[in-house]
Amino acid sequence: MREIRIDPTTGEEVVLATARVGRPNHLRPGRAVRTPPEDCPFCPGNEAKTPPLIAETVLAGEWQARAFANRFPALAIEGSLEGRAFGPYAKVSGLGAHEVVVESRLHDDPVWSLPDGGAAAFVLAQARMRDLARDVRLKYLCWFRNVGPEAGGSMSHPHAQLLALPRIPPRVKRMFDRFEAHLRETERELLQDLLNYELEKGERVIWEGRGLVALCPWAPQMPFEVWFVPSRPQGSWLEDSIDLAGLAEGMAKVLRAQAKVLASPSYNACLYQAPVGGAAGFRWHVRLMPRLGAYGGFELISGSVLHGVPPEESARLLRENL
To answer: Where residue 236 sits, what CATH number does that domain have?
Structure first.
């Protein structure tokens, strides 16, 4: 079974994929899976243990990053998008694509320790998303990295994932609506206004590099959350002008600082970008969220978040440890 069910009380969507049952750590959250290199399907020499190769980046005759279909896909590229209603309920077919991008040849070394900070993997992920965007059935492209058991990571070898969706997720759609409303009301981009203010004040800015700013957001969802925001308008991560090496450099610096301050926490890194076809006033950015606690009842009821670490303090500590 692969389908997307819509909650009639909230409009939120749930992807049901029975193929996910066989993945490591399924229904056992918070437990690390430590696979030795000789048994790891992501390690050099074990390439035959993964699904067939889709694409790779190569340097000096050796692959640096590999992309292939997820062995336990949440969505499948075969078929068409079909919707059905059942009384008050609705669902759509689980159309989409789910790929893995192995980000390093090294089994235990974090991405931030690589000489290029993971830039080769970004180049490969961008190429794969460009290819997926050609499929007219797919409307939104996700890139994310789950590192550590508290962040949903089921394999320790550095890797990211790509998900191509047949619909724009409701939460992301609400973001697009806010960005578009700000543009309509002010004739300015929301993230540009945010960047101008943050750079003027400076207290939440961590690092400013080649066309990119790393900052702790005003209202973080997690303690020590960091956003990586391009300095000029770029709606989609697929544009040629994006400096992927600069993004890799900035993320590596911040991840290294978080490892010092927080003792290498589990984390999620998530790309937010305009949908296929664009969104007025939106600017791509990456949100990096250390998983330092779990959501409780208040968060589940309200949709708000409760924690005790001001972003100004987070930014100061990270700046001091860059």
So the answer is: 3.30.428.10
**43-100 tens-digit pLDDT:** 999 999 999 999 999 999 999 999 999 999 999 998 888 999 999 999 999 999 999 9
Which among 131, 150, 167 is the end of a domain? 167
Residues 322 and 257: beta-carbon distance below 8 Å: yes
Q: What is the value of pTM for the model shown? A: 0.95
Between CA 66 and CA 230 the distance in angstroms is 26
Boundaries of domain holding 32: 1-167
Give yes or no for a contact between 171 and 303, defined as CB atoms under 8 angstroms apart: no
Place of tokens 């600017």: 283
Residues 156 and 246 in one domain: no
Cα radius of gyration rounded to whole Å, the chain: 20
The continuous run of DSSP H or E covering 182 comes out as helix 170-186
Q: Which residues of 6-25 are buried (b: 16+ CB within 10 A; e: fewer)?
A: beeeeeebebebebbeeeee
CB within 8 Å of 2: residues ≥ 6 apart: 15, 16, 17, 18, 19, 73, 74, 75, 76, 93, 94
- The total of structural domains in the chain comes to 2
